[in-house]
Amino acid sequence: MLKNYIKIALRNLWKHKLFTGLNIMGLSLSMSVCLVLILLVYDHFQYDKFHPKGDRIYRITTDIKGHEGPFSEKYATSPLPFKNELNERFSFIQGGTNLNSYLRGEIRSPHKILNIRSLYADEAFFEVFGFELKEGNGKALVEPFSIVLSEELSDKLFPDQSALGQTIEFEDHGSYKVTGVVKSPPGKTHMQFEALGSLSTLPVLAEKDLVSKNYNSWKEHWSGYNYLILSDPSFKNEAEAAINALASEKIKYEENEQELIFRLQSLNDIVPGDITSNEIAFTLPWFVLMFFGLLGLIVLITASINYTNLTIAKALSRAKEIAIRKVNGASKKQIISQFLTESVITAFLSLLFAVVIYRFLIISFNEIWIFNMIGISLEDSLGTYGYFILFTIILGLLTGIGPAVFLARIKAVNSLKGNLTQIKSRKRSVFKHLTGKRTLISVQFTGDYSHP
Prior knowledge:
Blueprint: H1 2-15, H2 17-44, E1 57-64, E2 74-75, H3 82-89, E3 93-100, E4 106-108, E5 113-115, E6 118-121, H4 125-128, E7 133-135, E8 146-150, H5 151-157, E9 167-170, E10 174-182, E11 195-198, H6 202-207, E12 224-230, H7 236-250, E13 260-266, H8 286-327, H9 332-366, H10 369-374, H11 382-408, H12 412-416, H13 436-449
Parallel strand pairs: 6-11, 8-10
Antiparallel strand pairs: 1-2, 1-12, 1-13, 3-6, 3-12, 4-5, 4-9, 7-10, 8-11, 9-10
Helix pairs in contact: 1-9, 2-8, 2-9, 2-11, 8-11, 8-13, 9-11
């Protein structure tokens, strides 16, 4: 049966080439915009999926007491001493790592001078996260003034040679020895860095007054990051209570000083997430993605209205065809299935043209300077196209269901006489006098007023 529907649908689409072309053109333009928006939302749900322990990794965040809520004054940072204290006291915490944002400024090698994104990290970094070393070993961040470079930065600073063992100068922070090169991660991550300096360097720099001596203070929650590994995600509430109890023990507030509340945030909830200050890298928060999703829905509705208008208008010339099929025994269900098949095939034909436009839109999106500055770029994958196909099927069904039901309700006898009056309701209704022409005009005005 489906094979017959497809055969008849292709025959009708080919027979009415101008009508088919108009529908495909309108749908493909709208779909291309929707595809970019789908990619943008999909992309933000793919962050940090490559870490083997990702489902058990949590970050300690800081809230200002009295300002809780979805748009609260929330910080991705927290006091550095948390990690070691919690590791020593609680068995349900099976490790963790500290990071610090003080490593910044120009980096110099014999070949280049660059401004880069960088962090200090302790020796447990590669035990917690799924980043892999291309050169070096797990002890790459143990010694002070050690530094690990990303694969891309290594190629920039030391082209055509190994970076391992080389020395680089960091503005105001001294000389660092390259002890490792990190492979490019297999997926996107909120932890965007080009270099990691050893956290053991900070005490030396603090002694020289090159960084704040309070970097390891319990009240310093501006520059440190704590990532913990729980033995099981079910211990989250217990761990959060332990963190705040420890904070009450260690942090003594002055009069009128704002108190802090500490929470655990799952690694998988960081992107997309709430608006959070002191993030390692910029990503779009969840409500911005919801806005783009709503924008895509508006574009989709507009495309559906336009398709419905054209299809119902074309129905005026296909009414007798439908009537003859009904006389020959075709049921409403079969009529609806036939027109839904046509709309889905039209949507897939539109997808072919939409993908071409979409590829150009991605290039334009990635060239927008604001997205370049904040580090957001779009890259599609095979998984993305699976969502595109699902979107196309849903679009085909949504755009086709209205015309399909409209045409299936046409009376066969009246259609043969040239009258497209719908079946009258048994109950009194304001719609009982609506003809196909009046319905078309109503839908058309609805479509016009849907545009700003």
